[in-house]
Amino acid sequence: MTADLGDPELQVLLQLLGTALGGPHQAPASVPMALFAMAAFFWWNSRAKLTYALVFVLGAGMIAAVMPPKWTERMVTIQHYQHDEDAVSRLTIWREALGIAEARPFVGGGFDATEYPEVLHQFYPGAHPLAVHSIWLEVAGDAGFPALFVWCLMQVVGILNARKLRRYARGDPELAWVDDLGRMTEASIIAFLVGGSFLPQSYFNYYFAVLVILAGTRMALSRESSRLARAGNAPRRGTGRINQADASRHAIANPEFIR
Questions:
Q1: Is residue 160 assigned to a domain?
Q2: pLDDT of residue 41
Q3: Pick from 66, 81, 84, 80: which is nearest to 25 by CA?
């Protein structure tokens, strides 16, 4: 399948690529990584993967070729991260957060454990307090491995909820917004998990609002499906059960759905 420049999916890919490579050169590396992850997500869900892949590669080369010298210098430092004080300090605090989690695997060291000298020095005397720039290690160091498991499970449930919404809306133009909600929230989750791997944002409240919106929308769909079934939507003959997707599509198109 071919694509044209007016295709919304192609436009999103190009905009994400341009922002990732052409953004402020002082921006954290996690920002372009998150944008690249979103671009990869939209590419994977596109209808013309080969065409978009070629456009993506060519666009990346063209944008990188016109980037200012400061951007090139910043990229070169990745090869010599041992001489980058910021990179070394992040790796050090990662090891310390993991060490706290291993020393207290069930409860961790408490919220922001690595930022308080009186807490950090119990495990690493003389260590420099610093925020853990990794959502994964931050949760492990703060609350232990059971909490990390629950936290990871929340992300899995969020992605499953987003995909469930997309399945509900598939093939129904009236529910295009439901498909958009599922698609964009799934992209947001992926961007958060990739970019957050290098940021101390484990408890970012806006992100958790996205998870709540997904869970609430899916619960509303299920509730309306059950209500329609009780109201007299007969099960399909031979199946013994209601077609929940069809019922949900009808229900969500009803203005009373949001009440």
A1: no
A2: 85
A3: 66
